[in-house]
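Quick review question:
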């Protein structure tokens, strides 16, 4: 999962182009798995398919905003900032389903807010990134869209066929990404073999292998263990960005990363919902 941001950055394509191809190129890999699931595990219902397609629109928005953030604040920091979704999902549950928030969540909320401001370089000059403030805004908006994506997926029910649902989500996301990308930043249907190669790796590693491994492995682990392991994604992205792209966060940004990641772990480990892949 941690390689997705690096591969998107190396593709040097627009948000619309990158978001479309990372979803579209995953479809041929997911289709035979979805067919096998349909034969052995049952068919997806029309209502579940509708929730999955709607979730795809939010996933496309997440991918578009996150790709823009990669260009503005860097690979590693953008992935860290997207992890703020762990506090947004409970807030959506409160607003829509009237669920209650734990005392731990209320204590952690201002900490993760402060960590977000520090990570994005909002409180300093000379922070890492071409446009760190804009990148922070786009990454947090991406996290909000991703939270909505997770929230809608749960509306499909815990018994939904996972791969069939995900296939519909990716197809829907590809359509929305191409349509919105054409109006925002441009969309290139033929970006060239080099960029396509990087985006194919993004689809393979992030959209298919990473998602499948997490979907299969997470239910077999205690929630605090899976939450801790999922934090390897932003940590890995930070390391890959530093090694491959020479992205070195400032001291305050590093402190912000530590606050965001530790807060994300504390929130997720205290949450009884199944963790899902992050990073846009």
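Suggested answer, residue by residue:
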């Amino acid at each position: 999962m941690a390689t997705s941001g690096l591969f998107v950055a190396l593709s040097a394509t627009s948000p619309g182009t990158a978001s479309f191809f990372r979803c579209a190129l995953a479809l041929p890999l997911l289709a035979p798995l979805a067919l096998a699931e349909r034969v052995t595990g049952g068919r997806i219902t029309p209502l579940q398919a509708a929730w999955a397609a709607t979730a795809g629109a939010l996933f496309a928005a997440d991918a578009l905003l996150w790709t823009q953030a990669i260009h503005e604040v860097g690979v590693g920091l953008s992935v860290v900032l997207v992890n703020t979704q762990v506090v947004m999902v409970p807030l959506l549950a409160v607003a829509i389903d009237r669920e209650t928030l734990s005392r731990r969540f209320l204590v952690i909320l201002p900490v993760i807010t402060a960590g977000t401001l520090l990570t994005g370089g909002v409180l300093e000059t000379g922070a890492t990134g071409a446009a760190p403030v804009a990148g922070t805004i786009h990454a947090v908006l991406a996290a909000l869209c991703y939270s909505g994506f997770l929230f809608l997926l749960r509306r499909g029910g815990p018994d939904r066929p996972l791969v069939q649902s995900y296939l519909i989500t990716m197809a829907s996301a590809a359509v929305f990404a191409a349509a919105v990308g054409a109006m925002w930043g441009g969309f290139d249907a033929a970006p060239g073999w080099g960029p396509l190669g990087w985006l194919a790796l993004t689809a393979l590693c992030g959209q298919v292998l990473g998602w499948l491994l997490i979907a299969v492995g997470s239910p077999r682990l205690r929630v605090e263990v899976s939450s801790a392991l999922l934090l390897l994604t932003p940590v890995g992205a930070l390391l890959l960005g530093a090694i491959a792209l020479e992205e070195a966060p400032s001291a305050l940004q590093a402190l912000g990363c530590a606050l965001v990641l530790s807060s994300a772990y504390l929130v997720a480990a205290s949450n009884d919902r199944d963790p899902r892949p992050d990073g846009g």
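Why it works: The chain has one domain: 3-269. Residues 46-73 form the longest helix (28 residues).
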